[in-house]
Specification:
It is a single chain. The protein has 167 residues and is mainly α. It has one domain (3-136). The chain is 81% helix and 0% strand. It has 6 helices and no strands. Helix 2 (25-47) packs across helix 3 (53-67) and helix 3 (53-67) packs antiparallel against helix 4 (80-99). The longest helix has 50 residues, at 116-165.
Amino acid sequence: MNPQAHQWAQRVTDASMKAQGHPVLGPYMHMVRRLPAYVRLAADLARDPDVPAVAKASLVAAGAYAVSPIDLVPGIIPVAGQLDDLAALLLAIRLTIRMTPKEVSIPHLERAGITRENLDEDLSAVKGAALWLAGKAASGARRAVASGRRQIAATLKRLSERSGGDD
């Protein structure tokens, strides 16, 4: 493993250890650790001639969406920008697994070390993280609006006092 990849893996491991006890971030970080296995699984499924073409198309579309600069949530927004990409990839993998005969999909899942339950748990973790993040953003926006209102009220009061003193 090259040094940069090793540093990234170590940072993910460290963050995962810190977040383990968090009810939302713990499952999310657990899913992030499985991400390389999901990428390998998607690539293997896309190459398998026994996987239906429409299922392969969903994997290609999800991969293209993940690398595309045009996104529902821009990738420059930390965490939120990656959640939609992760959701697209996991949903495409789940769709592919469901559309592929079990005798073809099960060996792929076993080689990747992923179960259908893992996939459902990880999709739930992405959903939970998205909802948690949206809640945090809404709370921050409410605080910013309240602060802005207070500042505007204080400014109007000062202006009113100044204009009242000039009469």
